[in-house]
Amino acid sequence: MVEELDIPQWSMDFRIFLARTGLNVKKVSEITGLSYSTVNNFTLGTKRPGIKSCDKIKNGIGFDMLEALYLSDKKEREK
Fold first, then answer.
1. pLDDT band at 5 (very low <50, low <70, confident <90, very high)
2. How many CA atoms, within 13 angstroms, populate the side-chain half-sphere of residue 79?
3. Helices 25-32 and 36-44, interaxial angle, to 10°?
4. What is the pLDDT of residue 71?
5. Range list of H helices, 1-79
6. DSSP 3-state assignment of 5?
7. pLDDT tens-digit profile of 26-77?
8. CA atoms of 2 and 22, how far apart (whole Å)
9. Dist. CA 70–CA 76, nearest whole Å
10. By the 8 A CB rule, do 54 and 70 touch?
11. CA–CA separation, 55 vs 60, rounded Å?
12. How far apart are CA 69 and CA 66, in angstroms?
């Protein structure tokens, strides 16, 4: 099981977006065509999305995963 502290910022941003929009993993999977387990891994932060998955998420639900990844990585480098 993943502890809260182990979840990357980009994943937390994705979770917050889903909560604010009323979406869940199943619905995102249906909309984007990504598997349930893939989307679930993104929400847990156990799998980092590639560019194709980021595009499917942005086009499907409007969340810019590439931007979230970039900002998260930038913040990590600044530590």
1. low
2. 5
3. 130
4. 92
5. 9-21, 25-32, 36-44, 51-61, 65-78
6. helix
7. 999 999 999 999 999 999 999 999 999 999 999 999 999 999 999 998 887 7
8. 23
9. 10
10. no
11. 8
12. 5
Give the tokens for residue 33.
């065509």
**Gap between the Cα atoms of 44 and 75, Å rounded:** 19
Residue with tokens 């099981």: 1
User: Would you mind telling me the total number of residues written for the chain in this entry?
Assistant: 79
Q: Tokens in use for 5?
A: 């502290």
Tokens representing residue 77 in the block: 């480098």
- Tokens found for residue 30: 């249906």
Which residue matches tokens 């502890």? 3
Q: How far apart, in Å, are the Cα atoms of 14 and each of 22, 43, 66, 78? A: 12, 7, 11, 21
